[in-house]
Amino acid sequence: MKLAGRIPPHIGNLTFLVYLNMSKILLHGNIPEEISHLHRLRIDLTWKNFTGEVPRSWFSSLHRLEVLFLYENKLNGLIPDEIGNLRKLKDLRLQNNRSNGPVPAVILNISLLEFVSLRNNCLWRRSPPNICSHNVMRLRGLVLSRNMFYGEIPSSLSRCEQLETLSLANNNFSGILPREIENMTTLW
């Protein structure tokens, strides 16, 4: 049996829902704002044909969200600054969409973040945000390839002492690779 269609707005009534995985269902259209009512949720809406923007209400009400997988869709627009409200977020995967504009610096405020993939969008910034500040010490993966980042690669990336995966390919970076990054022993 194949399921297809749109996510109905009534999904917001399932307030005790903890994990939403619709990765094998043929869904399309906009992502309903009513998902923001599901405060305990881990979200996997990958490999869909969702269009439009992620509703901003998600970022103000999903305070317990730890996992947000929205990759392989057709989502567009800016990644809103409100993403910084997701204080429990550990894994953020928005790759292979049509998101554009600058990456919000508020991602730095998400101290539990372990993995970020924004690959293959239309994101830009003079350099990627100082994502390896003292606030984000658990980061193990940072994938920013196939965007429009420019400027020098910041040596501050070396402060991510647990970083195992770093992908910056196919951007418009200039200059040389900072020596501090060359000496990182955890990268493979």
Automatic annotation (TrEMBL):
The EC number(s) this enzyme carries: 2.7.11.1
SUPFAM superfamilies: L domain-like
Keyword Transferase annotated: yes
GO molecular function, one term: protein serine/threonine kinase activity
Keyword vocabulary terms for this entry: Glycoprotein, Kinase, Leucine-rich repeat, Repeat, Serine/threonine-protein kinase, Transferase
Domain of life: Eukaryota
rRNA-binding recorded as keyword: no
Pfam families in the record: LRR_1, LRR_8
InterPro entries: Leu-rich_rpt, LRR_dom_sf, Plant_LRR-RLKs
The protein's name in its UniProt record: Non-specific serine/threonine protein kinase
